[in-house]
Amino acid sequence: MNDPMQSPPPGPPQAPMYSPPSGGTPVPDYMVFAILSTVLGTLFNLMACCCLPVALGTGIFAIVQANKAKSFAAAGNTLDGQKAASQAKIWSIVTAVIGVLCLLFWIASLVFQFALNPQMIENMIR
Predict the structure, then answer these.
(1) At what angle are helices 54-75 and 78-116 packed, to 10 degrees?
(2) How many domains is the chain built from?
C-alpha cells in the first residue's frame, strides 16, 4: 500500500519571498519625514513668499533619496541604502528648516504689519 521508498507528490510552486540578509542593520528610509517636511515646508514657504517655493525642490529631492534608500534596502544593498537614507535625512531637515524660517518670517510680517498700522486693528474690532 504505502511504499516507504516513494516520495510524496510535490506541492504547488511557491512564490519567491524576500528576506533581508541576516546580520545586517535595517536601513531607515525617512519617507514619512521627507513627505511631511515637503508638504508643510512648501505650504509655509508659499505663505511667506508665494513666488519662490524653495522647499518644494529640496523636499522632492528628499523624497527621491528616501525612495532610493527603500529600494536599496529591499535589494539587500545596505551600504548604498544607508548613504541614500542619510541624504534623505539631510534634505528633509533642510526642507523643514526652510519651512520653519518661512513660517517665522510670515508671523513677523503680520506682527509688523499690525504694529505699523494700528487702524487695521481698529477695523478688525468693529
Answers:
(1) 160
(2) 1
